[in-house]
Design a protein that fits this description.
By secondary structure, the protein is α+β, with helices and mostly antiparallel strands. The protein is built from 5 helices and 9 strands, in the order H-E-E-H-E-E-H-H-E-E-H-E-E-E.
Length: about 230
């Protein structure tokens, strides 16, 4: 082998070593990352409310059923109007009539009525639901189950907060990654992977109950991000 060939071969080994070293460094760089989470919370108040009055009674003839339905509809509607609800907010949702086949039943038929209100004025629902005793005093049997008839409060402007909250969660995650990088003598690089997380609406009092029963709510999102460390 002559001198020129030896030089070329040596240079080839050098360049090969450099390429391999660069490749190993790049691999280590690509595998060096930190996973962090960012939290964003926002307190909001419901902007829509729904409430239904579920009443029932028994009768022995279809005429008595018809008269009873009309009587309850009139009294409940009058009560709701006194509470400040408009005709557009009041809805006769359903009237169900069924045969009473139970042994020893006092009536041959039962009727169930559901009259609801939907409004953007949640204060009216709060006040009216507290005054439902007025209907009971008039002889109307009102169901008290909160799942089927209790006031429900909804926040419908969720999209207005989504972009802002995601930006805040990402900022919090970046701050956590930066703190980790400082402690590990490195610096934060680009995002490797991002999961924006699931938005949750929680009750304002932070109990385990369903948020629909509370006007005050908390919107929460936790984003998970992987940042390269350089």
């Amino acid at each position: 082998m002559n001198r020129t060939s030896s030089i070329i071969l040596s240079l080839g080994f050098v360049f090969s070593s450099l390429i391999i070293a660069w490749g190993l460094h790049n691999v280590r760089k690509q595998n060096n990352f930190v996973t962090v989470k960012g939290l964003s919370e926002k307190e909001v108040t419901a902007d829509k409310a729904w409430w239904s009055i579920n009443a029932q009674f028994g009768a022995n003839t279809t005429t008595d059923i018809q008269n009873g339905v009309a009587r309850i509809e009139n009294k409940v509607t009058a009560f709701l109007e006194q509470q400040g609800f408009s005709n557009e907010e009041i809805n006769i949702e359903s009237v169900n009539i069924r045969q009473n086949n139970y042994q020893g039943a006092q009536t041959t038929m039962n009727a169930d009525l559901r009259i609801s209100v939907t409004t953007s004025n949640i204060t009216k629902v709060q006040n009216a639901s507290k005054a439902v005793g007025d209907l009971i005093a008039q002889g109307i049997l009102v169901q008290a189950d909160k799942w089927s008839s209790g006031p429900k409060y909804y926040y419908t402007k969720f999209k207005d907060s989504k972009k802002e909250m995601l930006a805040e969660a990402t900022k919090e995650a970046k701050a956590a990654a930066t703190e980790f990088a400082i402690n590990s003598n490195s610096r934060v690089g680009n995002i490797k992977r991002a999961n924006q997380g699931v938005f949750q609406i929680l009750p304002g009092n932070q109990t385990n109950e369903n948020e629909v029963f509370f006007p005050d709510k908390i919107i929460r999102v936790v984003s998970t991000l992987d940042y390269y460390l350089e």
